[in-house]
Fold each of these.
Amino acid sequence: MNKLPCLALAAFLAIASAPALAEVGTLSNNGTGATKAAAEAKAKKNLEDACQSHKGQVVEGSFKVTFDKQMSNGQFYVDATMQCDIP
C-alpha cells in the first residue's frame, strides 16, 4: 500500500475508535423524602447507583434537579439528571 492511503486509513480508524472508548450519558431518576433536601439526596443516590450499575463514573458537578413538588401527603418529589461516563 502507498503511504498516503495507509496514513488516511490509520487516521480514520483512530478517529472512529475514539467515541467507542467512552461515552457520556445523561441519566434521569427521581426521589421522595420528608424534606426537599432528603428527596434530592435520594434522587442523587438513585442516579449514582444507576451509573455504577453501568460500570460508569459520575461526572462531578453534573447533578441537576429538573422538577420538584410538594405532594399532598407532605412528602417532596424530585426529578433529577446526572451525567455518567460509561466506558
Note: The longest helix spans residues 3-21.
Amino acid sequence: MRIAAPLVALTASLALSGCLVRTAANVVTAPVRVGSKAVDLATTSQSEADEKRGREIRKREERLGKLERRYQKQSDDCEDGDRGACQDARETYAEMQELLPTIPAEPSDD
C-alpha cells in the first residue's frame, strides 16, 4: 500500500502537468488565433471581390434591361402621339446612357 500511494500521486502529477502544459499553450497562442481571425474578417479574398463585382454587374445589366423595355414602351406611346411619353422616353434614354459605361462589353467571338 505504501508503494501504491506514491505511484498514484506520480501518475496523477504527470497527467495534470500535461493538462497544464496544454492549457498554457492555448493561453499563449490565443492572441495569435484571435489576431489572425480579425485579419481574415477584415480582408477580402480575390474570389470574394470577384463575386461581389459579378453581382454588381448583374444588377446593372438587369436595370439596363428594365430601362430598355420601358424606353421601348414609351417610344411606342410617343409615336402614337403621347407627348408625355416622349419626354419620359428622353429621360429613360438619358438614364440608359449613364448606365451603359458601367457595364463591361461582351468579348467578341473573333
Note: The mean pLDDT is 80.
Amino acid sequence: MAMSSVEAGPAAGAPCGAPSAAVALFRSLGDPARLAILRRLAEGEAKVVDLVGCVGLAQSTVSAHLSCLRDCGLVDYRPQGRASLYFLARPELLDLLASAEQLLAATGEAVDLCPTYGTATLSTPK
C-alpha cells in the first residue's frame, strides 16, 4: 500500500506512525455492522430495508452506519422512487475485501484467536 507522508503525520509522535487516513479507513471497516453492510453491498446495490434484514439492526442504526460510510467516501446512493439504492462508491473496496478474505484464510484462526482483538476477547467482559 503506497501512502504518502504528506497525507499523514506521525501517530503519537512516532516518526514511522501509520497515516491518519489509513487509520480512519481501517476504523471504519472495524465495526462489525459497517463491515457487514460493505460485504452485502459488494454483492450489489441494496435498499436500507435490505441491509436492515441482512445485519439485523434497527433502520435508524443502519442509516447511521450508511451515513458514516458515505462520509468516508466508501458508499454512495442513488434515488429509486421514494427509496435509495446504496452501492460501493469505490471498486477498490472489492479488492480490499477479497485481500482480507485471502489473508484470513492464510492465517487460519490466528487473527480470531488474537488475545487483543480476537472474538474471545470481544465476548469476554473486562
Note: The longest strand covers residues 75-80.
